[in-house]
Amino acid sequence: MIDQTDPALAACGEYQRLCGETEAAIEAYRLAVQAGDFKHAEAHFSEVNASRMAALDIALKTRPATADGAVALLRLVAANAEDMAEDPDHKPTLIAAIRAAADAIDGAQQ
Amino acid sequence: MTRTTPRRAIIAGLAATPVAGLPAIAEPLPGADPVLSALAEHRRASAKMAAALARSEAAFAMVDRDEVWKVVREAEEAEEAPFRALLAAENAALVAQPTTVAGALALLAHVADRLASDDLTDREAELAPEAILAAVAVLKLNGGAQS
């Protein structure tokens, strides 16, 4: 269950939910290709995937309020670090997310 | 893709590192978190690399045109050992396993600094996710994270 008291937990949870939807959309697309009619499935996948990417951006820019939120954010960062480190547009977001998570944990320790 | 750290570029990254006499770097206590020890070694290797580069730059400034290639060759040779030591220290810092919250936070700060650096290597980019997860493991143990 997602703890709504920390916006980072909620944002990371929403991203994970959309990852599941994206996987389902990929499977539906695969089946639609086999059936020979994939236009609708392709459009659905594009829509869901765009939502997933938007959710990732939001989650990485959400400052965690708790240690749990920071840990969830760091897991998200770790899962995307290698790809995003190569992307000059996304790298600053990645770095800021790491620092925000560390700050939140440091604050929780005080 | 293989990317190596351009030696000249390191100078800019190490601009804040004092060079002359390699001043004392805060040493973690014996038995301290391995991350803190690895980061201390990384700072030491960075300072030695900066010193080698500074010596090369000084030599280049004084050289005659006829001797330039000789000086360049000597500089490359002199930089080789500290350069390899720096690469080894960079990798060691990212594979060190933190045992304390302080070590985990220091590791996260180091990962962020390296990702922000212009001389980030491919190997460091590969190691960054594991380093973050190593920090997370310690934070979960010590912070009571539920997720």
Description:
The complex is a heterodimer of chains A (110) and B (147). Chain A is elongated. Chain A has 110 residues and is mainly alpha-helical. Chain A is 81% helix and 0% strand. Helices cover 69% and strands 0% of the residues of chain B. The longest helix of chain B is centred in the first third of the chain and has 29 residues, at 34-62. In chain B, α4 (101-116) runs antiparallel to α5. With 147 residues, chain B is mainly alpha-helical. Chain B has helices at 7-13, 34-62, 68-95, 101-116, 122-143. Chain A binds chain B through residues 3, 9, 67-68, 70-72, 74-75, 77-79, 81-82, 85-86, 91, 94-95, 98-99, 101-102, 105-106, 108-109, and chain B through 101, 104-105, 108-109, 111-112, 115-116, 120, 125-126, 128-130, 132-133, 135-136, 139-140, 143-147.
List keywords for this structure.
heterodimer; A: 110 residues; mainly alpha; 0% strand; elongated; B: 147 residues; disordered N terminus
Kindly state the number of beta strands of chain A.
0
Helix content of chain A: over 70%
What distance separates the N and C termini of chain A?
27 Å
The H/E string of chain B reads: HHHHH
Our count of helices of chain A gives 4
Order of helices and strands of chain A: HHHH
Number of helices of chain B: 5
Proportion of strand residues of chain B: under 5%
Beta content of chain A: under 5%
Radius of gyration based on Cα positions of chain A: 16 Å
- Overall mean pLDDT score of chain A? 92
The coarse overall form of chain A would be elongated
Structural class of chain A: mainly alpha
Overall mean pLDDT of chain B stands at 81
Shape verdict of chain B: elongated
**Can you give the helix content of chain B as a percent range?**
55-70%
Structural class of chain B: mainly alpha
Mind describing the biggest β-sheet of chain A? Answer: none
- What is the CA-atom radius of gyration of chain B, in angstroms? 18 Å
State the distance separating the first and last CA atoms of chain B.
36 Å
